[in-house]
Specification:
It is built from six helices and five strands. The protein has 196 residues and is mostly helical. The protein has two domains: 1-40; 41-193, no CATH class. The chain has a three-stranded antiparallel beta sheet with strand order 3-5-4. The protein has a two-stranded antiparallel sheet with strand order 1-2. Helix 4 runs antiparallel to helix 5 (157-166).
């Protein structure tokens, strides 16, 4: 009996040290060597300063920038507290949120897209993502905003559309997922070409 207890204690200590300390340190070391950027949060730097992460949306509100999906976190775009709204398709709260988003988008985009209707607005423009801070928007939502961004920045529409195309990631291995445009990277590309 005492022998069995002793073996159990030794096994618990060995497994705890092996899988609780050594294994995580080895995996962290491998990740730092093989996947340094991803292991450190896929941070984006400009002139030596971290401006965000490729994996988390930020709140862009100025008209010269592309806007991201609505955020489900409190405060908005809080990477430390990702969440989802958990509102179903029959939820009156979801219906209210979507209608509010539609009104806001029509107010902001219609001056640049005459004839824009609620039916023209992509679903990702008015709904939150599963994480609440998805950094990507659909190419359709980016193209809806292109006329506003081009007009406010005094850029040719073709230039802005080309930047959208350059910053669109396709399906993974051509099959999985949907194409997406990383909003932070697109806005940084806009700032690099200069504008007013």
């Amino acid at each position: 009996m005492i022998r069995a207890i002793g073996r159990s204690i030794i096994a618990a200590v060995v497994l705890t040290v092996g899988f609780g300390l050594i294994y995580p340190l080895v995996m962290t070391g491998i990740a730092q060597v093989a996947f340094k950027s991803a292991a450190n949060g896929s941070l984006i730097t400009v002139n030596g300063h971290v401006v965000g992460s490729k994996l988390a949306a930020q709140g862009f509100t100025k008209p010269q920038y592309f806007h991201e999906r609505p955020s489900a976190t409190v405060p908005a775009y809080n990477a430390a507290g990702t969440t989802f709204s958990n509102l179903g398709p029959t939820s009156s709260a979801l219906r209210t949120q979507v209608r509010t988003q539609i009104r806001a988008i029509l107010k902001e985009e219609r001056p640049y897209n005459p004839g824009l209707t609620a039916g023209d607005i992509p679903v990702d423009a008015v709904t939150t993502s599963g994480s609440g801070i998805d950094p990507d928007i659909s190419p359709a939502y980016a193209n809806l905003q292109a006329r506003r961004v081009a007009a406010v920045r005094h850029l040719p529409l073709a230039t802005v559309q080309h930047l959208i195309s350059q910053n669109t990631d396709g399906r993974w291995i051509g099959v999985f997922g949907e194409p997406g445009v990383n909003v932070l990277e697109l806005n940084l590309a806009l700032d690099r070409i200069g504008s007013h």
